[in-house]
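Q: Predict the assembly, please.
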Amino acid sequence: MEGIHEMKLKVATTVNGRKHEHEVEPRLLLVHHLRDNLGLTGTHIGCDTSQCGACTILVDGQAVKSCTMFAVQAEGKNLMTIEGLAKDGELHPIQQAFWDEHGLQCGYCTPGFIMAATYLLSTNPNPTDDEIRKGLEGNLCRCTGYVNIIKSVKTAAKMMGGAEAKPAERAAARRS
Amino acid sequence: MAITTMIGARIHRREDPRLVSGHGRYVDDMVRPGMLHMAVVRSPQAHAKIKSIDLAAAKKAPGVSAAFTFADFKDHIAGGIPVSASFVADKKQVPNQFPIAHDEVVYQGEPVAVVLADERYQAADAAALVDVEYEALPAVMDIEKAMESSSPKAHSGAPDNIGWELTYAPENPDVMKEADVVIKERILQQRLFPIAMEGRGLVAEYDNFDKRLTLWTSSQVPHFIRLFVGTACGLAESQVRVIAGPDVGGGFGSKLRPYPEEYLAVVASKLTGRPVKWIESRTENLTATTHGRGQIFDIEVGAKKDGTLVALNVTQYLDIGAYQGVFGAFQAVACLLAGGAYKWKHVASRTVGVLTNKTSTDPYRGAGRPEATHLVERAVDLVAREIGMDPAELRRRNFPTEFPFTNNFGLAYDSGDYGKSLDKALHLANYEDLRREQEALRKQGRYLGIGLSTWIEICGLGPSAATAPAAGVALVESSQVRIHPTGGVSVYVGTHSHGQSHDTTFAQIVADTLGVPYDSVELRHGDTAEGPAMGYGTYGSRSLAVGGMSIVKSCHKVIEKGKKLAAHVLEAAEEDIVFDQGSFRVKGSPDKSKSIGEIAFASYGAGLPEGMEQGLEAVSYFDPPNFTWPFGAHIAVVEVDPETGAVDLRKYIAVDDCGNIINPMIVDGQIHGGIVQGIAQALYEEVVYDDDGNLRTGTLTDYLVPTANEMPEFVLDRTITPSPTNELGVKGIGEAGTIASSAAVINAICDALSPLGIKHVDMPASPDRLWKMIKEARN
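A: Predicted assembly structure:
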């Protein structure tokens, strides 16, 4: 058993547009690789059973809980973390919307929610409330009661050009 | 106070840019040179003798520097973890909790050894190689059985399992005789996990040459940690700097006490000469961090046929866990608030704390107040049902209308208008329409329920006259306000923000009080190396009413000093100087005026007359004259599916009154989050142990924390009844939602199921529990 942990494998990734190459243990979780080897500590860890979604990042554009992947599985992949979202000191509209709508309190779950929302809006630019709820069901927040998180994602959709969902649609979707 | 421009404004949070961009600084983000990672070996047994601990294999594992057990710590930690008197000053049995087990483990998750290694994974690997031999002892798991004299004991050799027993007021049978109806009920408060999204974690760095400790820890109470952990580890406050965070990812009461790992990491750093990091995994968190609630209430309520409440008898049985929580006895406050928002001729209450082989219970959001609200709101609904009166009407008839209102235990509710918030909530809910809809749906065999909770709480902890004897420490609050030479303002406060937005709201208060630009105010907290000597931390919805007021007091001291300086600079008599909107002016000479910044500059740089000291800064300790008493009315609307037992929470209306409001956006955010934690208790969450003491809900797979999918539509509104106890007129809002909401939801479910004759439902009202009850009721 000792031997396997001394074995190292090469992993080359592009993270937030920058190329990285490291030698890592095969068992190293991607989230630990990002935090401990790359110093990208904006990706958080809130559980050890993949329930909480605090570690959500984008892997080739798809939302992934980075505690569910080994670092070596990210070989050759294009990753985006929370640190890659703001450009030239300007917050991304989703980050701005979370700020505007008080979509966070302690802030610990926030990077995961923002990355999950980034993926959601990339696949559905104009989600109903119910679609937002479903799109974020893999993420836990203990502070906000989710009300302002849903509002933040709606506001972000508007800022990014998606039309506003109609209230009637929202009510109907929630009952279904 | 000056004309307000910032107080009451919906200012966006200044905390957010760093948090939304991934630049928050939580403890696990910290790396120190030469840092070791600590892994804690924990007992898999709830109750056992430790026969032996073999560290040999662990010590030989790759990257391991050291491994320690009780024997290594015993001479470095004096005493154990403190236990506050809280509301039970005389306890019967307080087993000393040393931070690591000696020869007996008394709960699953108790530390038995630690391993220190260069890397996180190496420490975890080596911890798995520690070989501990246990001899199982009977586990005490059920609090009712634990009270029997024949029960095994949670601690070997103890006389019994009673941690405390106290009668606050005895029953009065003569008063109860005046009641036309008397109803008994047993009401359960299940154990809950607090689950801050960031678990606990720390970095302890002891410098063996300077003899100084820096401890970064995820805590709500950095000064308490310095006091208790530092002292026990033989360090004076001057040698210890505790930094909470800097960012802390939520607390909800679970981070307001010193914990074993803090002591162990400090000593481990001393012994190894290297910084030590420990980061709690979620699985660890669920046994190693305190739990909330865990109580049984037996109640007896008496009322007249006209709806007049007469008497209430309450006994609280509280599951302490294996060790008394540091502030665990605070939860007995439920006994003093059992009468809720109503006038009673008599309220009797008694608390019994029972030791078991489980993780300790300690305050969790609301702490004793959700329990009190739940029992009394259930009690008034039981009465309303029994006498056939509308529950809103029954409540209204029993509200006090004169304030301050002194309850049966001598606690004075500062101000209130309970009828007004109830009326507003009923209006927002379209209550009459809902009752008609309920009637119509019942004819179709559908079960709609409407549940009320007209809650009150005690917060703003607290006046020293009450808290010093009750908690063993006066829970006042400190602040320091510094005006820099060029007019910038730094404010230090002894409270701590971990989601509560103090950086924003407290700066709003300072901007208005000093009449300076909001952006010129910097708010600092959480670092014991800065600001006044002592701080008291954040819990019990106290930060604004006590910490905020301390800041106001420091601002006033600065203004008073500024007047003296201005009199000198403006060549006027001190009594002719007025302070208004950030400027010192001479009465009757409108052209003679200096801004606070100009006065500050003069105060540091100018030659001053004899007897006048340079500088413009002040330290204050604010000791509130009374607690504050927020209140409100919540209404939950549910439909229960009789075939599946599923609850559809259709709508949730909350009208709350927390006195004057500094930032309405932040108040609403606190209410949302609070309500959801109460709904989570009502419908989803429960800590379950088996009879042998194994935690069966040991991961978030087994314990349902609600997601965005589970939440209802919210309608929030408010009334504003300023508190007369402080100049800001504020009360507190951090726990209100949680205190109110479990009762509203359960009352709604009981209301829905009333045609089936179901009178009471315990929490969580899960589909299987309701399905069984419905099935039984139909047979």
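Chain B has three domains: 32-365, 399-461+626-778, 477-622. The CA atoms of residues 132 and 736 of chain B lie 45 Å apart.
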